Amino acid sequence: MTNSKKSILIVEDEPIISEMYFNALNQKPFSVLIAKDYEQGMLMFEEKLPLIILLDLLLPQRGQVEPDYNGEPAGLLLLQKIRRHPKGGESKIIVVTNLAEDVHRQRALDLGADEYYIKAQLDPHDLVRKVDGLSK
What is the pTM of this model? Predict the structure, then answer.
């Protein structure tokens, strides 16, 4: 990447939330990208190989459901697919979602999420501090 900024990919389908994260993170030395669904998230991951991914679990899917789909939220499928990618271990993945159940938290961590936060409990400034910590 010729850009000296570290890249962050926000995978979030709610425009208000993705804009809030974008505005908070764009003030730091980050190049911030936004994907609105599962497919865009995977494409942008493969193209940009971001340092950090902020991943919502409740994402729309435009195309076919993955063959191993078992009723899990699309964000968990994306997390799993990224971690299976040859370069997937190089990105830090922070799950930021409204799914507060322990079963979703544990599943995300088991699939390789580095951190898991509930949107309603996370201030954008705290998110920036967490991203700063992971980017070092």
Answer: 0.90
124 found inside a domain: yes
| Confidence tier at 5 by pLDDT (50, 70, 90) | low
User: The domain that contains 66 carries what CATH number?
Assistant: 3.40.50.2300
Which residue carries 């990919």 as its tokens?
Answer: 9
pLDDT digits (tens, 9 = 90+) for 92-133: 999 999 999 999 999 999 999 999 999 999 999 999 999 999
Task: Indicate the DSSP class of residue 87.
Answer: T
CA pair distance 99, 65, nearest whole angstrom: 21
Residue 28 in any domain: the answer is: yes
d(CA 40, CA 61): 9
